[in-house]
Write a structure and sequence with these properties.
11-stranded antiparallel beta sheet; globular; alpha+beta; single chain; 38% helix
Length: 525
């Protein structure tokens, strides 16, 4: 049989024979025993499943040094499987996940171990275990995530974290066409459903044999927690409803978020808003995102403080942040929930035409919130980012959305994570920034006529390039050009966050924000 080229992690997989492949299978099981806590009997079972998968009559012995999981075990094994016709090159990742599924402890075993650790050593140690399983099983592909470009941007009004996301490369036209040709089964209903647990995947849907979850109850409803495979910040986790139903911000949302922080006080948990434009990318299935309290918004102080005359134990702060954030904090959970419910009810129907805030267009609602719960310094804390998704002729993408002159950097909706100061920018920017750097360091006049051609890949950056050339010329060093481009991206991200503020950070916006809090019964200190 002619050998099929196997591209697994960016390089052609090495050619190995049957004997070496059998040894690598043994190495994989040894890896699972050491890194995935695969038990003695499950290891025997997994080994027999793998030798049957690859067609070996009996197992081999592992190497003394089994090497690295990806480069020394998985890449050559998947290459061997492609050469033997066990899978196709375009399904390499699906097949890799399949064989890792054989050696990842069963979901019930992981849940049992998680509960044992939580009861004996605490919730923080238990989540560390689940995160370790998620990384070491390659469900979280750290080799890919490490390719992301990431930096911190410092500003007097609050630092930002900016990432160019290279871990999710854009699909080729051939891959898109292949995915479209696949039959739509409607199973699982979406990427978040419980039915993803162990799902084999296809060109439309990622394989999930290695995903592991922990069930829990939030507001007395069945939910489960898993870690995000994309890791946009430390220990990025997702809490997901077992029921497939749309996102909805309600009083029950606050109860669920605080139930979670009672169970996992070392994590925050927040919900994307429940309206298009200002919501997350998946509005069809209710879920929340959380993790370590490392997002920039958590570091900001209060700008102004209010109190509730009826509940003296709660502080109501306007946060010193780019968008419009109310922070509620109290040692009493019921106080935070009660005031949050009152603010949500008032905001849903609140309008202030002087600052462009209209609650409805006809029967279409526009006001909602992005809520984030945490425990800080012994207090319950709830951040409520006020959102409005209204559009008009001048702002077809949203009045409180990045304007079109910023879409070259970020066009998509500004959800929970970015609203808190951690930006996830499209991977295309990496190559585009390199080409812009070449213009700024070429020493030759910029060809603006060519750049204005819609077919030019840099045409979306035309205005930005004109501004950069006007300010810096085209004789910068590559380092100077890099800095100029990064500075422009950083300042654009600040402007994007400022666009999302329903009450702008100026005198008119401050007065309007104060009016709203007075409307809900708060009194300024």
């Amino acid at each position: 049989m002619p050998r099929k080229k196997a591209i697994v992690t960016g390089a052609e997989a090495p050619v190995i024979d049957d004997e070496r492949a059998n040894t690598l299978v043994a190495n994989l099981v040894e890896y699972a025993k050491k890194k995935l806590y695969l038990g003695k009997y499950d290891a025997v079972y997994a080994l027999n499943q793998l030798i049957a998968e690859f067609g070996f009559a009996a197992p081999a012995s592992p190497d003394d040094n089994i090497g690295e999981l990806q480069t020394d075990i998985l890449d050559p094994l998947v290459g061997y499987a492609i050469e033997r016709g066990l899978t196709d090159p375009e399904d390499a990742l699906l097949y890799e996940t399949k064989i890792m599924g054989y050696v990842t402890p069963a979901p019930g075993e992981v849940i049992s171990r998680f509960d044992d650790i939580a009861s004996s050593a605490g919730a923080e140690k238990a989540t560390k275990y689940l995160n370790e399983i998620s990384v070491n099983s390659n469900y979280i592909r750290m080799a890919d995530i490490s390719k992301n470009l990431r930096w911190n941007a410092k500003f007097p009004s609050g630092d930002l974290t900016i990432t160019i996301n290279l871990a999710k490369p854009e699909k080729s036209n051939a891959e898109v066409a292949r995915a479209k040709s696949m039959p739509q089964t409607g199973y699982p209903k979406c990427m978040l459903c419980l039915e993803n647990l162990g799902y084999h995947g296809n060109p439309r849907h990622p394989a999930r044999e290695t995903i592991r979850i922990v069930p829990m109850y939030l507001n007395d409803e069945p939910w489960f927690m898993q870690f995000s495979p994309y890791v946009y910040f430390d220990e990025h986790c997702i809490a997901i409803s077992e029921s497939h139903h749309p996102m909805k911000i309600s009083d029950e949302t606050f109860v669920r978020l605080m139930d979670f922080t009672d169970m996992f006080p070392h994590y925050f948990l927040g919900s994307n808003a429940d309206l298009p434009i200002v919501g997350g990318s998946i509005l069809a299935h209710e879920h929340y995102q959380g993790g370590r309290k490392v997002l920039p918004m958590f570091t900001r102080p209060a700008r102004r403080r209010f109190v509730d005359p009826e509940r003296e134990d709660i502080a109501i702060d306007i946060l010193d942040w780019y968008n419009s954030v109310i922070r509620l904090s109290s040692v009493r959970r019921d106080s935070v929930q009660e005031v949050a419910s009152r603010i949500l009810a008032a905001w849903r129907s609140y309008s202030d035409e002087s600052v462009g805030v209209l609650a409805y267009t006809g029967d279409e609602p526009h006001n909602t919130v992005t809520p984030i719960a945490a425990k800080e310094n012994g207090q319950y804390v709830l951040y409520m980012i006020l959102r409005n998704n209204r559009t008009d002729e001048k702002h077809p993408y949203g009045i409180f959305h990045p304007t079109e002159d910023m879409h070259n950097i970020k066009k998509e909706g500004i959800g929970l994570i970015e609203a808190m100061g951690t930006f996830i920018l499209p991977g295309r920017l990496q190559g585009e920034c390199v080409k812009i750097r070449e213009i700024l360091s070429s020493g030759a006049p910029a060809d603006f006529k060519a750049l204005s051609d819609p077919d030019d890949p840099l045409s979306k950056h035309f205005d930005m390039i004109v501004q950069l050339v006007s300010e810096y010329g085209t004789s910068l060093t590559k380092a100077e050009a890099n800095k100029a481009i990064i500075d422009r991206i950083n300042s654009t991200c600040v402007k994007i966050l400022e666009c999302t503020a329903v009450f702008k950070n100026d005198s008119a916006g401050a007065a309007a924000f104060d009016r709203f809090l007075c409307h809900v019964g708060a009194v300024k200190v």
